[in-house]
Each structure stands twice: as C-alpha cells, then as structure tokens.
Amino acid sequence: MEGSESEAIFDSLNLNPQLFVNGVLNVVHDLADDAFDFFHQDAKTQLKLEGTDRSDDLSKGVAHIRNMIQSVLYKRLAMWETYCLQHCFSVPEGFSLPQANDSPGDSLMDHDALGDPELDAQLDSLRDKLTLVGKETAELNRELQALERQSVVSNRCAGSVNEALQLYEQHSMHDMFQELIRNASELRMKMEKLKRKRVEETECIRKERMNMPNGDMFTIKCGKGLSNATLEELQEFIADIKNV
C-alpha cells in the first residue's frame, strides 16, 4: 500500500492499516508465548520435574512443539496480513474524498428535500398513526391479560364445581345403596315374620280341627270364634281352608 492511492486516502483520515495489522500480530504472538510458558510451568508442576535432569528434556520437548506450532501459525498470519492489506484496506479505483469547497448541490442529500412541508406532514401523520397503534396495542394487551386472568379464575371455579359434583355423586350413590340394603333387610324380615305367622296359624288350625268335631270347624280360629273375626281374618281363614 505504500505510495498507493489507498494509502493517501487513509492518511487523510488519520488511519494506518499497517499499524492495525501489526497490533493484531503482536497480540497473537504474546498470547502464544504466554500459553506455552504456562504449559511448560504446569507440566513441570504436574510431573514434579523441578530441579531434575528430566526438566531439561521437558524444556526441549516443549520448545520443539512450540516451534512447530508457531511456524504454521506465523505463516497463516502472514497470509492474513497480505489479504487484509490488499483487499480489506483497499479502496476502489476512482474513489475520492469530498473536497471542502464542494458546492452544496453536489451533496448526496438534497437539503431542500429535508425541508419539504409535504414530506414533513406525511412523517407527522405516520408518527401520529404509529402512536395511536401503540396505544391500541397496549390497550389490547391489557384486555388480553384481563381475559387470561378471568379464564384462570373460571377454570379454577369449574374445577371446584366438578370436584364438588363428583363428591356429591359418590356420596349420593353410597346413600342410595345403603338405603336399598336397609329396605331389602326390612322386607326380608317382614316376609320371614309373615311366613312364620302363616305357618303358626296353619298349624293352629290343623290342631284345632283334629281335636274338635267336624260340625264345629267353622266356629274355631286359633281359640276365637268367627263372629269375633274381622273381614281380613275371614278372608285369610278361607284361603287357609282352600290350601288344606
């Protein structure tokens, strides 16, 4: 770049690409040196070679590895330096910096366009619309958050109601089942009682009939006459006679 048009342009801007590249190379060299020094010291500590003959062998080995890596690294850095100076810090042909005595009309931006009232009005309208949209968006966000909170509360209430219904249904079914058991037990007891009563009455009639003459059959019902019997007892007595 020395003596080139690019160098003159960079000099006019108080910039020096070569100094930048040299600074990067120096940083890389310092990092590499520090890394190998640390590696050497840490290896001696880990291997406990301080003050022994093997310490010299370790130093020679580290130096050999260091030379191999730095040789390749410096070649790559030299290629990078060449590329940067030839391509990254090269300006196109015909490029020239604006002169101080350039007319205002040669500027890339027309100052008259910046002061156009119609354009300013359009920009103000766009700003107002953007502000309005921002306010509407904020309001919609607040409504959305309120709906989300309401939805959470509704879901919790629905869950509580469903849980209560399930508990009610469980207890209701349990109560109905217990009621059926009680009714069945009572019905069985009544049927057994009625059966015993019928058996006792039938047995009583048979005994009375066997001990009394035939003419007095219709005057006996377990020690009571037919005149004292009720209509239901008479119907029951007739049914017993038919079953004999």
From TrEMBL:
It is found in: Chromosome, Centromere, Kinetochore. Its main location: nucleus. It comes from Davidia involucrata (Dove tree). The keyword Cell division applies. GO terms for biological process: cell division; kinetochore assembly; mitotic sister chromatid segregation. One of its GO terms (cellular component) is MIS12/MIND type complex. The keyword Cell division applies. Keywords: Cell cycle, Cell division, Centromere, Chromosome, Coiled coil, Kinetochore, Mitosis. Belongs to the mis12 family. PANTHER family: PROTEIN MIS12 HOMOLOG. This is Centromere protein Mis12. Pfam families: Mis12.
